[in-house]
Structure formats: structure tokens, C-alpha cells
Amino acid sequence: MTTTLPDKTLLLDDIAGLRAAAQFVREHDSVALLPLLLPGLDGPDLQALAGHCRFAHAGLLLFPPDTDSLRAQFAACGLDVDTPSHPSVVVRDRLARRHGRDPAELDVRILRPRVYGSAGQRRAVEVFALAVPPHSGLEPIAAYERTRRHEAHLAFEVERPEPLALRGLCAILVRHGARPDGGGYNPHEDGTVLYFTLPADAACDYGRLELYARGDHRDTLAAHLDHPDRFDSPRPDARPGARQPAETLLHLLTGAWTTQALAAFARLDLPDAMDTRTAQRTEDLARATGTHPRSLATLLRYLAMFGAVAEEQEGFRLTELGALLRADTPGSMRPLALMYGGPFYRSFGGLDHAVRTGQPAFDQIFGENHFDHFARDPQLASLFDQSMAASSRMFRPLPTHPVITAAAQAPAAAPATVVDVAGGNGELLGLILTAHPHLRGVLLERPHAVEAARRRLDAAGCGPRCAYRSGDFADVPPGGDVYVLSRVLHDWDDDRCREILRHCARAMPAHADLLVVERLLPGDGSPSLATAWDLHMLCNVGGRERGADHYARLLADAGLELVGHSPLPLDAHVLHARRAGVPEPVLRRT
């Protein structure tokens, strides 16, 4: 890489940049600033962002020769020279990746001197400082970074970071051209950071936006990091916010490598052998896991690019993201890694067959359909059920849905009943019954799944309040108060969906509600996990994802009416339906 060496004016450039950032923070507020960052933002979307987000700080990267010089720069800009500092791991690692340096060479500090807005609002300038002594080997980095301003950003703090609201704010940003650009959870501050790259036509000299939410929002963070339109850190030969087409295509083509690297990481039990606090030498990890040291180092370096592990001077450390692949961690996603790197990985090799014929590639590869194949192999069936449960964070907010809450609180001689149709291993029903001790449950499933659900619900203490029925969709039990179809309809074509919904409608009393949990295809073509799962369903089961209007038509064909829908984690939604023509009662039951 060729960079330009600094000249004698660059120290003054740092002061000018710091002074400009402080002035920017003093003069701007959320309502005026957001349309500059996201051209075309107005109306309800602007009101939602400005109503939930407070402009908090402007961030920039400085290169003082030493600590005294940084204090002098602060003094020249009217900032507190005694502002405390602490290490900035994120920016240090980004610099190391961009410039091919050992992170240990880069002592990046973070300082947040206070700045007040025009109406006295408490804000800050977030300064990342890398000391660059004269004639040191770090001068080319300083020269390049001053020109490109990769770390310059504007930060907004979410004032009431409820999970659904936070996901909605992220969706608005993406809808108006911002691209997910990493983030993280800081346990020391108990805060979650979501980064975005701003659109190229933003009317502002900042390329990135930070959304900061107090508290642990790692479910939202995981969806943000997995976003299909995620922007990876730029390389030295690319302008911020852009990649060369060939580089973009190479990143896309190597996606299969990432799937297998994560699956191998899980299969080798490496996450369970690693620590999230202390780095371990590759040789020690190889002995503990029975792997080849040099080959293991190659795998771990690759996984470090995606944040599953962190490479430090002492060796490799497991990150919070990588810890999701531990076998015993709550909400473990290890079963998903084994499924996506196993049977579903093989089936995607026949995707061209599915696209050419409209028939699932899974059937062609394995000689039978997805459900029969898994049902005949108890170990594989158990892994599939575990993989479905691994996405249970999708429906964690469901017990607070107004329909569930109303059923739990309604005055009645007998407790209200929630019927989980094709309820798998009982994960969702157990969640609802645990949250509402006065509710009863009924779970309908295939015989082998019923036994697994019985064990799970007994272990959760919900068994005495739950009944079980082995059967198919034609056996939906009547008389329930709330019926749940979670991730069922996307497995089937429209005709089968109508049939399933008719079975539900026939079983539902006039007062009953139906909740359908699915991912919804966006109507505007914006990036969504639903789009990825639409391809997955085509390839593996012959089903599909659908939009809200499509589900409304299917419900209407079954004599049901879509009342509304609301978002859930992992790009899911819960659709609320009732029998058509039945007025909404004041009380759910009498």
C-alpha cells in the first residue's frame, strides 16, 4: 500500500478537525440533522427517529505526537484537558485490519470531552487518539486516515430502547439508505452499539452513524450483524461506503466457506473449549480439542474476521458472538450451525434443480421429503427440533402480546387455553405458560415430537397445565381461546396453507384469536431475512415466505380476518387473526 507522508500542517489539521467537531455538536439537533444524513427522510419516519433518538456526539480519530500534545489540542478547542481515557479495542482492530498491522502496535485511546448544545443539552466529542511520534512507522497510517476519515461518525442515543422500538429504528435507517456496519455490546458500560454507513448522497461530512442503546440488546445486535445488506469495514484502496464489484463478488462467493467454518468450529467443540475473558494459545486449544495446531490457527484467524473469535497477543479469545455456538449456553445456536453446515448445506447444492423445476432440492438430494427424512432419523429429528428452538429469541416477546395477556387476565370460571398447532418441542408454549401461570395449554404434534415436548414442558414445571394430542392439522382441537401457528405456514404452498387455516377456523370458537408467527417479505424490496428464508424454503421444503397482504388473502379464504401484525426479533412478525364478521368483544370470555 502506498500512502502520503504527513507535512507540517497535519497537527493543525487535527486541531481544526477537533474544533469543527465540537462546533458541529453545539449547533445541531436530531430533527435538523437526521434529514441531512438520510436524504428524503420526512413524515412519520423522521418523527419516529427524532422522537426516540437524541443526538449525543460526533466522533473522530486524531494522531497527536504524545499525550501532552493531545491535552494541548483539547485546550486549544476549549475542551476539558483532564478528560479520562481508556483503550478503544474496536477502532484499534479496525485500523489493524485496514493496514495489515499487529493490533498490539496500535495503542488507541478513547476520550469523551463534554460539549453542550445550544439549549444546554449534554453532549460530547468522542475522540479516538493514536499517538504517532515524529518519524515513526505509524505516520503513513495517520496520513491515510486523515484523508479518508473512516472513523468519523455521528452518534444518536436511543432514549427508551425497547427491543421492538430499537429494531424499528434500525429498519427505518436501512429503508432510507443506511447500511449496517458492525457493532457490539460493552458489558463495562452495559451498552449496545449499532453502526451504519450513511448513503453516498448524505449532505454531511460524516460517513457513519452510530445508534447507541443502554442495556444488553444482543438479540437486536445479532440481527444487525447478520443483516444481508451489512457493510464490512473498508479496505485502504476503497472509498468509504463502497467496494469494487470484483471484491464484492468474491466476498459473496466465499459465503459457503463461512458457513462451513462456523459449522466446523461447532463440530470440533471449540467454543466450549475457549474462554470469553482470557485468550488461549493455539497449541493449548489444539491439545484440548484434538486438532492440528497450524490448521486450527488458520481456522481461527478466518473466524476472527467475522467476530466469532478475537485474536490477541496471547492467542485467541471467544467473543460473545462465538459463545452462541457453545452447547450449553442459553439460546445456543450450535444446532443451527450443524443443520446449516450439514443437511441444508448439501441440499443447497441442488438449488438449480429447485429453480428449474419448482420442486425442493432436498427431495432430489436425499430421495424423500424433508419431514419424512427427519422423522425416520431420531438423532436428526432431535437436531432439527433443537435448531428450531435455537431461534426461540424470535418469539420471546410473544407472551406480552395483547391477545395472550387478555386471555390470561380475563374473568372466567375456567382458565383460558392456548392451543399450539404443530408446536414442535414445546418451546413456545412453555414460554407462554411460564409467563402466565393461569393459562392452560394444548400441544398438537406428531407422535415423536409430542414426547419431546412433554419432557420439556414437564422440566419447565408446566406439564400439569398442558394436554397433548398426537395428530395432523386435521386434528386441531376445538374450544381453545388462543390458537398459535408458529413458523408453520411457510413450510407449505398456498393450497395447503388454506387447508391448515380452515382446520383452525373450524376449531376456533367465536371469541377465539389466532396468532401466526412468520417472517414477512417486505413490500418495498428492502433487505430482509425473509428474503433469504424464501430461498431456503424453496430449496428445502417447497414452501415460501409471504407478505402481509398475501397472508391476509389466505386467511380470508379460510373465513378468517387479519386484524393486524407487529414485529418480533429476527425479522419475524406476529399476525393476529379472528373469525371473519365476529365483532371484537369487550371481554375475551365470560
UniProtKB/TrEMBL annotation:
Q: Where is the O-methyltransferase dimerisation domain?
A: 250-325
UniProt xrefs under SUPFAM superfamilies: S-adenosyl-L-methionine-dependent methyltransferases, Winged helix' DNA-binding domain
Residues in domain O-methyltransferase C-terminal?
Answer: 350-560
InterPro entries from the UniProt entry: COMT-like (IPR016461), COMT_C (IPR001077), COMT_dimerisation (IPR012967), SAM-dependent_MTases_sf (IPR029063), WH-like_DNA-bd_sf (IPR036388), WH_DNA-bd_sf (IPR036390)
This protein's source sits in the domain of life called Bacteria
Any one GO molecular-function label of the UniProt entry:
methyltransferase activity
Keyword Acyltransferase: yes or no? no
Keywords from the UniProt entry? Methyltransferase, S-adenosyl-L-methionine, Transferase
Q: Which is a GO BP term held by this UniProt record?
A: methylation
Positions the record marks as coiled coil are: none
Q: Which PANTHER family match?
A: O-METHYLTRANSFERASE CICE (PTHR43712:SF2), PUTATIVE (AFU_ORTHOLOGUE AFUA_4G14580)-RELATED (PTHR43712)
Q: What is this protein called?
A: Methyltransferase
